[in-house]
Amino acid sequence: MRQAYLTIDDGPSEKFRLLVDFLKARGVPAVFFNRGDNMQARPEDVIYGIRHDFIMANHAYSHQRASRLSFADICADILRAEAVLDRLYKEAGVKRPGKYFRFPYMDRGMGPSLVEPGRRSPAHEEGYNRLVTVGLGHALVMPDEAMVEKKRALQEFLKEEGFENLPVRGVTIPWYAQTEMAEGVDSLCTFSTSDWALSARHIGKHGFSNLEDLRVNIDQDKDLQNQKSRHIILAHDQAEIHDVTTALVDHFLDRGVSFLDFHERVL
Ligand SMILES: [Zn+2]
């Protein structure tokens, strides 16, 4: 049976509680990479998520692209969201399971690039390019040296602040496991549901016009066929696409995918 970890970005939306209830009813664990501004707007919802055993993690405060902010501004934005998370875990009376972070747009400082130039082998290109273009909707652009430096400095910053990679195991997709993607202090993924592509802003512009297109994309994705590797799946908590995201989670379940708990650490 295929196994996967579910990661959900951009919450808590107005439909966050519905999503939590939906996942809970199906026994699907998840980590939520929340925006600081959304947590500030709906603190009780975050506490609700924590008390229902979901992991709340950091997706920066104001959801901006790291490559377009100064180094100091990104760091401040991350710490601002961190302060909100700390406070809400305290209010919930639950110890934080770990400090996890995902960059907005997965922009690690290198724009659309997830891996430094020259650090992938030709065998990695197909799957990697598919995630960047189909999954994240980015163009394939090479970062310059200054961007690479910024990415490295941000990794150092995250380490110093005590962030750690998600406790996922058994992810062996080569372009993920054999590149810096698996080593990053920030959290990446191996498959994106592209649920975002059905929002009003994006619909029809990225090759996806309806739910069926996204289901077919899941069924045909080469890496997802890999039964030996576990998968790290990206979805979103955005009110506008709530029905899309939940339908895709159900589609994975229909296809026999089981979602794993992040807490099962091996000592
Ligand atoms: Zn995001």
Q: Give the averaged pLDDT, no decimals.
A: 96
Give the N-terminus to C-terminus distance in angstroms.
25 Å
Give start-end ranges of low-pLDDT stretches. Answer: none
Strand content: 5-15%
Bound molecules: zinc ion
- Succession of helices and strands: EHEHHEHHHHEHHEHE
Quaternary organization? single chain
The description of the largest β-sheet is:
6 strands, parallel
Q: Which secondary-structure class do the elements indicate?
A: alpha/beta
Q: How helical, in percent, are the residues?
A: 25-40%
**Total of DSSP H or I helical runs spanning 4+ residues:** 10
Say how many strands there are: 6
Coarse shape = globular
Gyration radius, in Å:
17 Å
Description:
There is one protein chain. This protein is of the alpha/beta class and 267 residues long. It is 40% helix and 9% strand. It contains ten helices and six strands, in the order E-H-E-H-H-E-H-H-H-H-E-H-H-E-H-E. The protein has helices at residues 16-26, 36-41, 43-51, 71-92, 125-135, 145-160, 174-177, 211-220, 222-225, 242-254; strands spanning 3-9, 31-34, 55-58, 191-192, 231-236, 258-259. Strands 1, 2, 3, 4, 5 and 6 form a six-stranded parallel β-sheet that branches. Helix 3 crosses helix 4 (71-92). It starts with a strand and ends in an 8-residue tail after the last strand. The model has no long low-confidence stretch (mean pLDDT 96). The structure holds zinc ion. Residues 9-10, 59, 63, 104 line the site of zinc ion. Residues 9-10, 59, 63, 104 line the site of zinc ion (ZN).
